[in-house]
Amino acid sequence: IDNDSFATIMEYCDGNDLDSLLKQQKCIPEREARYIMVQVVLALRYLNERRPPVIHYDLKPGNILLLSGSNAWHVKITDFGLSKIVPEDIGDASMELTSPGAGTYWYLPPECFLIGLNPTKISSKVDVWSIGVIFYQCLYGKKPFGNELSQANILEQHTILNATIITFPPKPFVSNDAKTFIKCCLVYSKENRMDVIRMSESAYLKCKKPERVILPQIANIKIEDNIV
């Protein structure tokens, strides 16, 4: 690096990401998955309490980095390329969606797929829906809506716009409390869906200091294998 070069230095997360963990393990036991979700939700609450607040908008397993240490994973959220800064003058109200069609469709809520004369309104409840999808995927090894579909097919078949019913496989065993939490995150109507603050205060998560659990190690991946 010389005086004419620009470099961005970032924290190194040696545990790779949640997407890699799910590809290796397929699904994660509820206790471990909850441990990860608590940390992600706390991070979302921090973003929501900033002034002005921030909506991540593209929350997914690949954007949840895992930092190992003391026999437990610590979570970092990354990739704010599609994040939305909520204008201070609207307070807790919804803001206009400025990037329709962007994002990772499996993890976006129905309101992000609406087409009409007036711009779509979004809020932190977008991230709440994403948490429900990610938690479901951690527990069952598949996404609740359009798991086998491409993004193009999701659009063509209106998969998320029709995602009014969520079903839970009989195996693996998942507690009723976890299922109830997921249902609350995946409420179809944004008006009836809880926001980030309410989600962080849910009895299931108890977002204070998450208990420490030992999580499985992710197989090492050579850096040169991921150079584009």
Summarize this structure briefly.
With 228 residues, this protein is of the alpha+beta class. The chain has one domain: Transferase(Phosphotransferase), domain 1 (Orthogonal Bundle).
Q: Runs with pLDDT <50, length 5+?
A: 212-228
- The total count of strands amounts to 6
| Sequence of strands across the biggest β-sheet | 1-4
Count of DSSP-assigned helices: 6
Please give the CATH architecture.
Answer: Orthogonal Bundle
Report mean pLDDT, rounded to a whole number: 84
Radius of gyration: 18 Å
Coarse structural class: alpha+beta
Helix content estimate: 25-40%
Characterize the main sheet: 2 strands, antiparallel
Classify the beta-strand content into a percent band: 5-15%
What is the CATH H-level superfamily?
Transferase(Phosphotransferase) domain 1
Provide the number of structural domains.
Answer: 1
CATH topology: Transferase(Phosphotransferase), domain 1
- Terminal CA distance reads 21 Å
GO biological process, one term: chromosome segregation
Organism: Myxobolus squamalis
InterPro entries: Kinase-like_dom_sf, Prot_kinase_dom, Ser/Thr_kinase_AS
Keywords: ATP-binding, Kinase, Nucleotide-binding, Serine/threonine-protein kinase, Transferase
